[in-house]
Structure formats: C-alpha cells, structure tokens
Amino acid sequence: MQSEVMFAGFGGQGILLSGKILAQTAMDQGFEVAWVPSYGPEMRGGTAYCTVVISDEPIGSPIIKNPAHLVAMNRPSLEKFAGIVKPKGVILINASLIPIRSGRDDIDELIVQTTEIASEIGNIRAANIVALASFIARSRIVDFDIFRECVKKEFSKKPKLIPLNMKAVDKGKLAANFDV
Amino acid sequence: MGKTFLKPNSLSDNHTHYCPGCTHGVIHRLIAEVIDELKIRKNTVGVAPVGCAVLAYNYFNFDFQEAAHGRAPAMATGIKRVRPDLNVFTYQGDGDLASIGMSEIIHSANRGEKFTTIFVNNAVYGMTGGQMAPTTMPNQKTTTSPFGRDVKDVGMPIKMANLLAALQTPGYIERTTVLKPKYIVKAKKAIKKAFIYQMEKKCFSFVEVVSTCPTNWGMTPQDSIKWAEDTLLPYYELGVFKDTPKMEEKNAK
Amino acid sequence: MAKVLMKGNEAIGEAAIRSGCLNYFAYPITPQSEVAEYLAKRMPEVGGMFLQGESEVAVGYMLFGASACGERVFTTSSSPGISLMSEAISYIAAAQCPVVFVNIMRGGPGLGGILPSQADYSQSVKGGGHGDYKLLVMAPASVQEAVEMVTEAFVLAEKYRNPVMILGDGLIGQMMEPVEFPEKVAAKPSDKSEWATTGMDTRKSDKRNLVKTLFLDPEELNRHNLMLKEKYKKMEAEEVRYSTYNTDGDYKAVIASYGTMSRVCKTAIDMLKKEGIEVCMIRPQTLFPFPEVAIRKAVEKKSCKLAISIEMNMGQMVEDIQRSVSGIVPVKWYGKCGGEIPTPEETAEAVKKYLNNEE
C-alpha cells in the first residue's frame, strides 16, 4: 500500500517542516518514505509545497501526479491542488486563511481554524503543527503516538518550544474530532 | 683546491631551455639557494605556471606540480589546506598571474594562504611568442600591440605588488629585480624572508621580480637590461609594499 | 546503524566523511548548496577541512593540488558549476588524480533552471573538458544509493587513479529519504607516495615526484594517451554496474533509464503490467562504463520489439543504447528536459504509444 500527502502554502508557514515530521513519523513506524520538496525562488515567500510518499514497500516514483491527501494552508494552494487529490482522500483546509471550500464531494473535507487555535495556545507559528496533528488524526495515515514523539524529537534542540507544540498536537487532534 | 661555487642541491643537473639573457635562470638559482639554506628541500612542493617557466620543474630538484594557466595559486591553496606542513611556492609570469590568473592570486592573497608566490614580471607573454600582457608598458610594441600599447584602448599596465598591497590580509609584498648584482642580493633576501614567513606559518608572501625578455623585446641582453632599468623600474618601483606578517594574527583577534 | 531521515545533499556530505574524506572544496550553487552548508558545520567536528573557493574554476584546481599531494578530496556542484570545473577535470584526469565530483544536475543549457534534470549526461560521459579522457560516472536513484556510491567512488577513484563523477539529479539532492550509513570507514586511502607530491622526506629514496600534464614529445603524449585508454578499457571490463526490473517475462520493450527517472519508469512498468503490457528496465548505475552487454542481451529476447531511452533531457543516452543494441531493435526516446519530471502516467502512456506504432 502506498499513500501520498501533499502539503502546500506560503513560504514561511512551516510547510516543509510539516512534511518532514510526517515523513519521520512514518519512517519510525517502519514504513518506506520519500519527502519531495519544491525548491527554488518560490521558497522565499511564494508558494511552497512538498509531497510525502509513504509505503510498505520500496518507493518507485517519488513524483506523484495525484496525491491521496492534501493539506492546504493558503487559498492558492487549495485552488491549485484540490482537483488532483484522489477520491476518498482527506483535504485539510486552513480556514483561517481560506474562505472557500474544495468543491469536491468525493473526498473527506477537514476544516480547521489553524491560526486561531495556535493563537489560543500562545503562538500562531504553531499553526502548521495544529494542521498536521488534525490531518493525522483524521486520516490515520500514521500512528498518532509515534507522531507525538516525533514532534518532541523535532524540537529537542529548542526544548522551550516543546510544551507549546504538544498543546498544538492535542488541539489539532481535537479539531479533527469536532469537525465530523 | 675544492670548488668554491657549487650548484645548489635544489637545482637539477639539466640545462635550461631559457633564451640567452633570460633572467629565469638567476631567479631559479636564488630560490634554490634559499631552499638549500633553509634546509626545506625535502618538504617543499613547487607549482609551475603556464608560460616560459612551465618546465621549471625540470630545473628544480624537489616535488613539483604543474598548474594550468593562472591557476597555480588555487593549486597551492589546495596543497596548503590539506598539507599545511609542506612548504609551497608558486612561480608565475605576468601573463599567467596578472591576466588569466588574476582572480586566483587575489583571492589566495586575500585569504592569507600561507604559501609564497614568486612573480616574474617581464612585461610580455614569453612562451606564446611575445604578445601584450597586462603589464606591457605604454607604447611598448608586442606581437598583439604592433603599434605599441595604446593605453586609451586597453588601459595602463597593472602593478601587481601595489594592487595586492591594497588588500588588508596579505602580510609580505615586495618588488625586486635581478637586473644587476646589487639588486640580486636584495631579491634573494626578499625570497628568503618570504619562505621564512611561510615556515613560521605567518602569512601569504609575494615577491615580484622585474625581469627581461630579450627575445620577445627584440633586444640584446645588454640592451634589455638597460631598457628595463630605464622604462620598467620607474613604473614598477622597487621596494617593500607590505611587511606586516603579524597583521593576520591581529585581524584574527 | 539505525536509519535516519536525511536530505540527499546532506547525506552525500556525511557519506564522504564516513568514507574517510576529510577535505572538501566547493562553491555554492542551487540545488546542491546544502552539501556545503552541512559540511561547513560538520567538517570542524571531525577535524576535517572545508574551504569555499572563489569560483568553481578555482575549486577545480584546489582539488587538483590537494589530490596531487596525496590526500582524499571531493567537491559537489551543479551543472553550470561543473562546466566551470571542466577545465580542471581535464587536467585532473590527465594527471590521474583520484578526485570525486558530485554533480546534482539542474536544467540547462546556460543558466537553464534550478530544478531536477539529467542534461549533463553527455558532458559527464563523453567529455566536458578538452582531450581524450573518461570519468567513471555513477548515477544514484535514491538517497541511500547516493550514500553507497560516494563510498564506492573514493575506492574506485583510487583504484584507477581517475576522477569519478557521481551524477545525481536535483531530486536526489533535495529529496529526504531514510538512509543507513556504513558503520566503519570503507577503505583506507591508498599509499600515494609513489607518485604524489607528498614531499621527498616521505620517501625512502631520493626520488622526487612530479605531477604534470604537459608532454611536448608527441611520442610520449601518445604513450600517455594509450595508457589512459587501457585504463578506461579496464573500467569497461570490470566496473559496469546496473540493475534490472521485470526482465523475467516476455516483455515487449526494454526501457533504459537512470537516476530519479528510473524510479518513475519502475512505477510506469507496474502500471503497464496491470494492463497486461510487459515492459522491462535496465537501469545503468554506471553511465561510463555503460552496461552495453546487458542492454544488448535484453533486446535479444524474441518478444522484444523496442528499446526506449527515458531521461530528463532530450535523448542524450540514445546513442549509447543504439550502439549497444546494434540495430536489433529500433531505439526510441521519451523524456522532458527537466524541472517538469514526467509522471509515471505520462511515461506509461508514451511507452504504449511506441508499442502501438510498432504493431
């Protein structure tokens, strides 16, 4: 089985990091993974996106035409990529910045106010972790407890940020459960 | 009676291919004497340029590398960075160093690479047949400036020692010549000082040697010495441009 | 050692250290700058040396000088940077210095783009610099393979006293995948005091060493070239590496593809299989020496009608495949110049089209 998640948003929204934490979680769980970034001038403020491929066997093409899921952090990303997601996938919409919806009825749409939630827990920069936690809770693409450990590990060099991000993980999960 | 004037160990027994009256032979000998006197022959690596001195390794008697045109300072950098214990010098002409290798010499000097450059300036490309160099004098005729160097067209000759002395990092820069015995004595002192600074791991050291090229200048050896004294020396003034080997340590602090 | 998730560029830097290479000269260029950024931090931790040169031209000669005095040394760059180094590469090959180069290719010609490409195939395999010389060229298809090839590259470079080029595309550098590093340093650097300018006091005899590339005597130059030719022949006999995919059944076509593109092809082959179309792949892991015999044998199967070169360029490998199949089947090409990487769907479609035209 292979699954793919595309993360997309503005540069600076922590898109690449979200993808990396998911890839790390999947790897720790024993899956094969590939994290494929977009890179170049668009990294510096424009659109950033990355794809994480997760599989239980060696990964062939890391280039994915139709990802299974999408985490859209800004409106241009949703507009650009909503149409390519495979049926039955999860599309997470960052409702703090995106007033529209995917327009798809064959996918599982997950609406999360990431900025507001992050702001409630103390730092809007944790919005990406809120989104990631929400997405993982809904899609169950990886084990949630392993994910939590990976977030801790990611911030191990800045331990001050761990409590904040743990809150982001919990609130994100909660958001996924509320929006059913 | 024993011999009183011996060939330095650092020179090989080969006869040089240099033209009659060429000053390369004298400069080779000075370097060889200095290396013998400092007893560093067995851990010295020379880097030959492209130009008349490309075959310099045939006349020296220690390890040598042969660079591409102008790149000798980059090669010397490579050697020094991985083997700081070796004594390394580049031997370069003015076409090689001041034209095609301008970038490499400036950056090596500016990084304060701890090697020595002997820069032989005779105001012309020798090996390729007497073409104009960045150091060719105003109105000097060469095969590619047949009407004389037109400074309105190609600018004034570059004074390398002055140019490098404008950098903050390099510690020792001197311009010498070997046109007459009194100059030769001074030139040897400069070369020796440059190698000592290197051995003490102090600084980048650069010795320019104003030289002749009777063949490409179209002069007899005697006339070329006179022309060099009358024309080159007033423009390429001799002297110490920088002797602040400890500057680098100060900068580092 | 446990698996770690690492970006290709960083993994390549780490692999060099673990292969016993503690000397690195480089110049920043997208998409490989992470190697320099990684090693700028990492080299001091392991007592290694990193110098950012003033240009790729200078870096080429820093490598030459360092290698010519016997030390293990490597660099990483990307296409336009490799062009600038090509001058030095010719000298390094001529002087038989074992330098390892990594080219994380981007699109060309000119400044081209900064996205993944395989447009430097010909430059790496056929030349690049002046004169008759060959690089041993390796093409990794994953971060793990890039790591393994780095280690092998140092061994091969020293075995043959020849520069080795690892030709990865931008994706190999930018992608993160799990990697496992070898526990121990692969091999000790060979003793080079026989030929390198290690200083006369490193030798028992009074012999002095000379590293040079000038041979003014035409007979001597000819002998030097013949000696190099013998070396390249030996590489062709001993160092061909490739892997195969789906070669058991009665396939209709042989795909030749390397690097990231070969992974896309693998998925495309799986897709075609589901539709009942059998296609196999020969994936060259060394581009020079080229797996000629393997490709020839593959097309000799009766069911095979076609060979298709699939690359992120305009078909630079086609001639090598034509040479390998020597007319047994027609040789086609599919690809894009890079940046936009063909998807498995597009690739499968292209293969089908060629097969339909054949029938």
Q: How does this structure look, described?
A:
The complex is a heterotrimer of chains A (180), B (253) and C (359). Chain A is built from six helices and six strands, in the order E-H-E-E-E-H-E-E-H-H-H-H. Chain A is α/β, with parallel strands linked by helices. Chain A has a single domain, classed as Pyruvate-ferredoxin oxidoreductase, PFOR, domain III (Pyruvate-ferredoxin Oxidoreductase, domain 3). Chain A has a six-stranded mixed sheet with strand order 2-3-1-4-5-6, sandwiched between helices. In chain A, helix 1 crosses helix 4 (127-139). The longest helix of chain A is centred in the last third of the chain and has 17 residues, at 162-178. Chain A is globular. In chain B, 53% of the residues are buried. A seven-stranded mixed sheet of chain B has the order 2-1-3-4-6-5-7, sandwiched between helices. Chain B has helices at residues 24-38, 72-82, 94-100, 102-111, 151-154, 160-165, 181-199, 214-217, 221-235, 247-252; strands at 44-48, 63-66, 87-93, 116-121, 172-177, 205-210, 239-243. Helices cover 38% and strands 15% of the residues of chain B. Chain B has one domain: Thiamin diphosphate (ThDP)-binding fold, Pyr/PP domains (Rossmann fold). Chain B is an alpha/beta fold and 253 residues long. In chain B, helix 7 links the parallel strand 5 and strand 6. The mean pLDDT of chain B is 96. By secondary structure, chain C is α/β, with parallel strands linked by helices. Chain C has two domains: 4-197 and 228-237, Rossmann fold, CATH 3.40.50; 242-358, Rossmann fold (3-Layer(aba) Sandwich). Chain C has twelve helices and 15 strands. Chain C has helices spanning 8-18, 33-45, 56-68, 79-94, 121-126, 143-160, 170-174, 218-238, 259-274, 292-299, 318-325, 344-358; strands at 4-7, 23-26, 49-52, 74-77, 100-105, 136-138, 164-169, 176-179, 210-211, 242-245, 253-256, 279-284, 286-288, 306-311, 331-335. Chain C has a five-stranded mixed sheet, sandwiched between helices. In chain C, strands 10-12-11-14-15 form a five-stranded mixed sheet, sandwiched between helices. In chain C, helix 6 (143-160) links the parallel strand 6 and strand 7 (164-169). In chain C, helix 1 packs parallel to helix 6 (143-160) and helix 10 (292-299) crosses helix 11. The longest helix of chain C is centred in the middle third of the chain and has 21 residues, at 218-238. Chain C is globular and about 70 Å long. At the B-C interface, strand 1, strand 2, helix 2 and helix 4 of B face helix 3, helix 4 and strand 9 of C.
